[in-house]
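[recover] target loaded
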């Protein structure tokens, strides 16, 4: 793994939030504000040098190596697996009664 254990843990906590907070602090509140993680040309999101520079500074500050080798499959797994895990958790906790309940929330 290109990350140190404390950085991996931080990606779900304070380190990640520092980056998100910096974007909000810059007044980048999303599409209606005209900028967030992207700049917007009408409703079209466009890559923005402000966020790219902010991310580069954040990576440097926290010793995170940029990855440009992510495959489409890895991106799908990174998006899908947390949903699956959360579905299992809410079943275990009795929040959902059945897997059909979980499926319904995903398509609703």
């Amino acid at each position: 793994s290109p990350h140190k254990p404390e950085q991996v843990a931080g990606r779900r906590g304070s380190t990640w939030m520092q980056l998100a907070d910096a974007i909000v602090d810059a007044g980048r509140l999303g599409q209606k504000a005209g900028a967030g993680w992207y700049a917007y040309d009408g409703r079209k999101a466009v890559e923005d040098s402000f966020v790219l520079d902010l991310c580069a500074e954040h990576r440097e500050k926290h010793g995170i190596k940029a990855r440009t080798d992510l495959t489409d499959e890895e991106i799908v797994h990174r998006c899908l697996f947390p949903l699956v895990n959360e579905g299992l958790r809410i079943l275990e906790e009795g929040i959902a009664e059945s897997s059909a309940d979980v499926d319904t929330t995903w398509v609703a």
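[recover] notes: Residues 8-12 have pLDDT under 50 and may be disordered.
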